[in-house]
Amino acid sequence: MKTIEIPKVDSLAAIGDPLEHIADTFHFLLTALLRRERALLHAEHRRPAADTVWYLRTRTDDADGTDETVAVLPSAIVSSCAARLALAVDLDYKAGGQARAILMQAGRRHECRIFLSNCRESGYWIRIYAQAV
Prior knowledge:
This protein starts with a strand and ends with a strand. The chain has a seven-stranded mixed beta sheet with strand order 1-5-6-7-2-3-4. The longest helix is centred in the middle third of the chain and has 14 residues, at 76-89. Helix content is 20%, strand content 44%. The chain is built from two helices and seven strands; from the N terminus they run E-H-E-E-E-H-E-E-E. By secondary structure, it is an alpha+beta fold.
């Protein structure tokens, strides 16, 4: 399983225009995920929406929590984040796919299952399930 170090980004305000700083924007979203012991980060772009809501859902063995809005970002971010993540974990995202990876931040490790699609037929979406180990 591939291990990826994620830089910590605590605020979107410090980033500026998210379309000009896609990597930092994605690191902000992943930082929100990695703050939790066990959670799901997910987003889905539906045409013709200009913006996409990114959600975070805490999970336990017994139940899933409710979706909390992490950010509302330009929809182009979904495709860019899916492409970056697919390259990092060597995943064929064009037809939908899944992979496993370890995401690390500040010495903390999360085992992750990553599901994403970046194609017209199945849509543009990202789901990252993370659990601290």
